[in-house]
Amino acid sequence: MVDVQTIRTAEEGAWGCDASRRTPGRKRHIVVDKLGFLLAVVVRSAGVQHRDGLKLVLVRLEGRCPRLRLIWADAAYEAAVGWAQLFAGRILELIRKPEDQKSSVVLPRRWVV
User: Fold this and answer.
1) Alpha-carbon torsion angle 9, 14, 18, 24, nearest 10
2) How many other C-beta atoms lie within 10 A of the C-beta of residue 3?
3) What is the pTM of this model?
């Protein structure tokens, strides 16, 4: 499972701003196994997009976790599906919410992170 967390910082200009959340700070791009144990992490500016953060964190996994082939992600990573397969040799499976869903509901496999 891959996910991103935005962390607010005190120094606003030094680390960028997450445009979707309007939060100044940093982003942690993480990959965990299905039990939630951390496999890789990259901390970057909050201005880094999800797909670019995914590339950075998958490079960290290169040579490690050779049996890891399938990575679950939310729909924000859609732009990186082809890259993950072609360059990292991993299958990125997107977990999407049902189209008729109106409220916030825990999606399968998303509870891990």
Assistant:
1) 40
2) 21
3) 0.76
The number of residues making up the chain comes to 113
The whole-angstrom separation of Cα 8 and Cα 84 is: 28
First-to-last CA distance in the chain?
7
- Going by C-alpha positions, the residue among 105, 100, 50, 106 that lies closest to residue 78 is 50
Alpha-carbon torsion, ordered 72, 77, 83, 85, to 10 deg: 20
- In the three-class reduction of DSSP (H, G, I as helix; E, B as strand; rest coil), residue 67 is classed as coil
Q: Which two tokens stand for residue 9?
A: 């910082």
Q: Residue 14: which residues within 8 A CB-CB, separation 6 or more?
A: none
H-helix or E-strand containing 8? strand 2-8
**pLDDT per residue as tens digits for the range 17-26:** 666 667 778 8
